[in-house]
């Protein structure tokens, strides 16, 4: 049964330890019966120094730090031990590609599955963004699908981009 792995970097779960992430994986594994359908497994990239510093990354290519490399190894080991991964897609950003490479199968890179572009906010600390543009920061935090940071893209834009990726690759066709 084919299993798909996708390194998704849009989540805000950098506070979880590799053990917590693995425990989540074990809990999820038991919830889904083993049917003849492909599985889509979404995995967030490992930690970067910008995660620790509270900086907006977006499309800037910040690499994994030492903890992030360890998280990537643990995630890869968990997936190898528990799933028969056949296809791996990842954002072309190094933090995602490095995380995906830990699985040990060829990685297909795609710019179209990068996280949201924060535009002019990229590289800035979130508390600084909150001071300079409190309304914009609140709209982003609230999940406003139409909000677009200056020079960036909205969540609606990201959904369109992700949907186009899924359609073009036939990723979810059964």
Distance between the termini: 11 Å
Average pLDDT figure: 83
**Element pattern in H and E:** EHEHHEHEHHH
Class derived from helix and strand content = alpha/beta
Unreliable segments (pLDDT under 50, ≥5 consecutive)? 1-32
What share of the residues does DSSP label as strand, in percent?
A: 5-15%
Please count the helical segments: 7
What is the radius of gyration?
A: 17 Å
Query: Largest beta sheet, briefly?
Result: 4 strands, parallel
The total count of strands amounts to: 4
- What is the helix content? 40-55%
Assembly level: single chain
Report on the architecture of this protein.
- By secondary structure, the chain is of the alpha/beta class.
- It contains seven helices and four strands.
- It has helices at 18-29, 49-53, 66-82, 94-101, 126-132, 134-141, 155-169; strands at 3-7, 39-43, 85-91, 107-110.
- It has a four-stranded parallel β-sheet, covered by helices on one side.
- Helix 1 (18-29) packs parallel to helix 3 (66-82), helix 3 (66-82) packs across helix 4 and helix 5 (126-132) packs across helix 6.
- The longest helix is centred in the middle third of the chain and has 17 residues, at 66-82.
- The chain is globular.
